[in-house]
Amino acid sequence: MSAKAIKGTILCLHGFAQNGPTFSAKASGIRKALKKVGYHTIFINGPIELAAADLPFAASSLGADDKSEESNYRGWFYTTEDYEVQPAFDAIKDSYKEHGPFVGLIGFSQGAGLAALIMNDFAKIVGSESADEELKFGIIYSGFKVKPEKYQHYYQPSIKKPMLHIYGELDTLVSSDRSQALVDLCDFATVLKHPGGHYVPNQKDLLKREVAWVENVMNGGTGQLEEPKEKTEEDEKKELEKLNEEMDKLSTK
Question: What interhelical angle do 110-118 and 86-99 show, nearest 10?
């Protein structure tokens, strides 16, 4: 049997105080769903090494695993008012040389902020003229605009690539207002909300919509999705009948 053709490679950027492997585990739902339809994902480490003692909070609050003494905490930039992102740019460039080209970027929290920041100037950042045409989309989990004024020009006049923004309605670390501020900078933005907090959701119905969005964009669309239809009484009746049939089958075994 021949190997399944790869439709493209997607670069995945973890959150603050996470690393590539931990993000791969926490984003296992979308990683596996994309693999099923032919996409390869690459999870890399941020350039900044952090010690647990350096963190002003429990790392678990950002989705990191702070139970292990050997936790490899990483970041893309420091959480100060004025910070440098050039080390992050350099890491993206190195990953492109090793694993590119990339058809998409996926980011969570700080990684989402970085992914959105580099969308317009991706070719310049990675040093390849073809990189901009190769890059088709970004998926942003709990994303936000970076603060320093010196980086605001990266968003101007707007983010042109289709962007899928996903965030939790109960997120207390990156508020919905901050996520919406980033959404407002995008020409082709699709927003999916989940009833949770600061994490990458793995609900099947949401994963299906995310994969459908990716396929739409890769086929030349802008990612606009149809709203899921509300269930009618007839739909619920059919589901109940199907469930009863399954239970009857089980009882006869």
Answer: 80
CA dist., res. 253 & res. 181, Å (int): 56
Query: What does the pLDDT look like over 132-141, one tens digit per residue?
Result: 999 999 999 9
Beta strands in 68-223 (DSSP E): 73-75, 104-108, 137-141, 163-168, 189-194
Greatest CA separation for the chain: 69
Domains of the chain: 8-227 (3.40.50.1820)
Q: What is the pLDDT of residues 193-202, one digit of tens each?
A: 999 999 999 9
Nearest to 109 by CA among 12, 221, 205: 12
| Closest-CA residue to 163 (of 209, 106, 247) | 106
Kindly report the pTM of this predicted structure: 0.83
Q: Distance between CA 54 and CA 131 in Å, rounded?
A: 36
At 143, the amino acid letter reads: G
Copy the structure tokens of residue 4.
Answer: 């399944």
